[in-house]
Amino acid sequence: MGNTDVRVRGLAARAGGWSARHRWAAVGIWVLFVVLAMGLGSAAGRVDVDESDQLKGETHTAARIIEDAGIDQPAGETVLIQSKDGAKATSGEFRAAVTDVVKAVGATGKVVNVTSPYDTRTISRDGRSALVQFDMRGEADTAADRVEPVLKAVAGVQKDHGSLRIEEIGGASMKKQYDDAFGNDFQQAEYSAVPVALGILLIAFGALVAALLPVGLAVTAIMATMGLMGLVSHVQPMSDTANSVMLLVGMAVGVDYCLFYLRREREERDAGRDPGTALRIAAATSGRAVIVSGVTVCVAMAGMLFTGLATFEAMGLASLMVVAVAMVGSVTVLPALLSLLGERVEKGRIPFLGRRRRRQGAPAESRFWTAVLRGVLARPVISVVVAAGALLAVAAPALGMKTQQLTLDQEFGDTLPIVQTYNRINDAFPGGSEPAQVIVKAKDINAPEVQRALADFKQQAISSGASRGPVDIKVHEAQNVALVSVPLVGGSDMDQAVKSLDKLRDEVRPATLGKVEGLEAPVTGQVAGNKDFNDQLLGSVVPVFAFVVVFAFLLMLLSFRSLTVAITSILLNLLSVGAAYGILVAVFQHGWGASLVGAEGVGAVVTWLPLFLFVILFGLSMDYHVFVVSRIREARMRGRTTKEAIQHGVVTTAGVVTSAAVIMVAVFAIFGTLSMQSMKQMGVGLAAAVLIDATIIRGVLLPAVMALLGERNWYLPKWLHRLPDLTHDESPEPVAPVRPPAVEGETVRI
User: Fold this and answer.
1) Cα–Cα distance between 382 and 439 in angstroms, integer?
2) Of residues 462 and 205, more confidently modeled
3) N or C end of the chain, less CB within 10 A?
4) What would the mean pLDDT of 451-470 be, rounded to a whole number?
């Protein structure tokens, strides 16, 4: 094969060397791993996050009391009957419509506990609206599958009473309408990520086989992780959200890692090195960058485990697993496949693209970034001031960020008819569509002091201004539990509804139920759940940020043995995240350019997104950072000056970083096209941040800062020299041997 001085000593280099020498074994082990993971995961089944474990605090306590008491809470549905012409609920036609609704829904056989508004006093203050309420038979989780006959029955009554508005809303009907309208929306976005990534890779590589390798690795890593999620879910329950995030992250890092490795191997071959040497160099350099990046991303994802929120913990663990699987696949099965394919990796060349790459030779340097770098390195101070100033200006709106759980109308706008029903009920019965629920647990629910406390609570809930009523109390004597339903003043106005909730929790409850010894009375419901979620999320921000930043700093310090590189890495990543926050606030809170992404009128950033974006972006941005800085350090070790090393490192990695970024931006942007505003915010935030990171941060700010620092880039205090040395994968560049023309079907042996 040709002489080489590449020292195969590091983990990545050793893994790549072993896989290339035992290529069939490496491929077989990977295939076996994927098949076994899928098979075992399918056999074990996936345990999803239980509603009672979603949150801590009062919401969790309430769910535990209901669960321990064995009380089944069916899916509740409501039919709004509202006059269009000002007629009152006391009119003959109105009463006839109520009677027809009660009979029609009861005749379906799918409902129980049908109540008339004339019995429950669920008639609006103006007398123009009334509510018929009932429960769906069977399990609440599957009620959406059985609600269609009820919806048809209500629609039939509507046809007979044209002067009235007769509409149904509830957990089951909302889920059905959502599934009908958007059920395939999210799934199609996930599936379209693969062909989008493949198309971009075809342009980047100019060859079908080379483009298929990264997608194949990403897809198999995702498949294996799906199986592992089933196994792990018996310890840490998973969720559909965790599955979707895992797919997003898996596609991003799986393609990226393979892309880094494959592009380096092709670059070395184009430079005239034989396939074996090219593969060794790729293993020792890009392979090492993949491991450093992968471990850093895993650490970032592990930050979600500190939130104490079951959904976040599931997302963090699922993302961590897919990154680890993709990382292992990149440094094991990928070298084996490249060794097996040899020159056949160029099969399926796209006309013009493949020939153009051959004419250019290697290392391939981007003309655009070469021109940019020339200006940046000539005027580093101006470049830092302009780039950092621009990013700080973009990040500035984040200082006024307002976060909240999006209401139904914020999440979907007017795209669903049920949203209009939701708004009408909230207007006529403030808080009626999402009442607070007080779960009262006593030693004896019928004890006189408990009954007095319940009566006082009911009276004070209204007199305090927290509710306009009606307050409904449902007693389960056998379990000594009472369920108190309290419509909150504020309705869909979350700020006002939260004030009503606080009044209920902090004033009304202590003055009534709180005086009974041994009585538990946690307040739950949609508004309470949102508030508890927000409070817990805010409480976890500091530990999550601290964990991710500190461990990422330590990894950078150990991987590059430079205090300067570690500090600048953290600062640049924080600036990138800050810019993403600023864009989110500008677009979705202030509405600047919101019409371009269909986000008019949202007015806030969804609560969970800032922390989620921080963790995801901090991890993913390390991909590019580690890859670029590794290349710069490698060039510096080969004797180039710092400025020359920066020039070489940035322009030679520009192609692969651009390709990887374009894929990520395209995949994330797909989610920005979804109808749900929370998904739209996630897609826009991720896409914008990756674009900023791959261009302004890596192409301008990083080289400008490193140029200003000069030799101080590699500063490591003497007292830190005792730290473990994780840089031994790097090696001097071997002299390129003269390689004879490739033979068709040649395999690589090293």
Assistant:
1) 62
2) 462
3) N
4) 88
